[in-house]
């Protein structure tokens, strides 16, 4: 006995279409490399409003892609952890680096930044997806949670 269509579960379809040779992909070898990518992807809004992005990585730290998770206002943006991990799982990523900009130019993480980092890291531990870093990007400088030993 089947359910009527109104009780069917909506789901996200998963397809894997990479189409690149991993050795041709850029490789992340430190926070300065991730910062450069952060500058590149945020150049149109870096001093205007906050956006949160992730760099998705394979086992060898080659970049699988970059995904924008949220776009917010002048002083913040909302990040849904479920959306972050949905993107990571769909891309078959084994690790990632979080990036967000501070339009004010202040590189210091807020309490909200610190709490988000811990929540993202904890969620990844359950799924065996490692959060390598969280980079706060500004025009002239950056803050790396990994470099500061707080991730």
Describe the structure.
The chain is globular, with a radius of gyration of 17 Å. Helix content is 26%, strand content 23%. The N and C termini lie far apart (50 Å). The protein is of the alpha+beta class and 151 residues long. It has a single domain (43-151), classed as Cytidine Deaminase, domain 2. It contains three helices and five strands, in the order H-E-E-H-E-H-E-E.
Q: Could you please say which CATH topology applies here?
A: Cytidine Deaminase, domain 2
Which CATH first-tier class would you pick? Alpha Beta
Oligomer: single chain
CATH superfamily: Cytidine Deaminase, domain 2
Uncertain runs with pLDDT below 50, 5 residues or more? none
CATH architecture: 3-Layer(aba) Sandwich
- The beta-strand count equals 5
Contiguous helical run count: 3
Structural class: alpha+beta
What profile does the largest beta sheet have? 5 strands, mixed
Mean pLDDT: 90
> What is the N-to-C order of secondary-structure elements (H for helix, E for strand)?
HEEHEHEE
Q: What Rg, in angstroms, do the CA atoms define?
A: 17 Å
Query: Strand percentage, roughly?
Result: 15-25%
